[in-house]
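Researcher: Go.
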Amino acid sequence: AAMRVDPVTGLLDAARYLPSPNCDERPAGMAIDLIVIHGISLPPGQFGGPWIDALFTNTLDPAVHPYFRTIADLRVSAHLLIRRDGDLTQYAPFQRRAWHAGISEYAGRPRCNDFGIGIELEGVDLIPYTDHQYQRLAAVIPALRRAYPAISPERLAGHADIAPGRKTDPGPAFDWMRLRQLLG
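Model: Structure:
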């Protein structure tokens, strides 16, 4: 069966829900009309482990890895994480504003967190993402479009597209053409 977003809770039925405190209300009357694709790995270049969950729930232990000391105080989240094996975790209901985009602009509009949905893929810029991740992403996006019809097919951006010069993810290894073909 197709994935579904519950219109009341804003949760995706196929995802594990791990609530992040790092989200808040969107501006009143703001339509959700953009999907932003990110890449994340913690520690950088390493996959698996509890560290992404810990970052998004403010429980990252700075003593575990030197890099963690530099990010342990960040207050960030995405709506959804797609791990290398396709496993889905949701951290914020889609109708709430997750804190994923930072200083950003799309089509001349600043503050992409206000109107965007952030999807993190476990990965790094230069390593190919997995078949599982493309398949899951290609199932998640139509579910989001059904729930939030203002997300038209072209309103899909990478973090690098909305924060150029500041962010590079999901990086050159992300195959946009493949995703578009899967979406039809």
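Model: The chain has five helices and ten strands.
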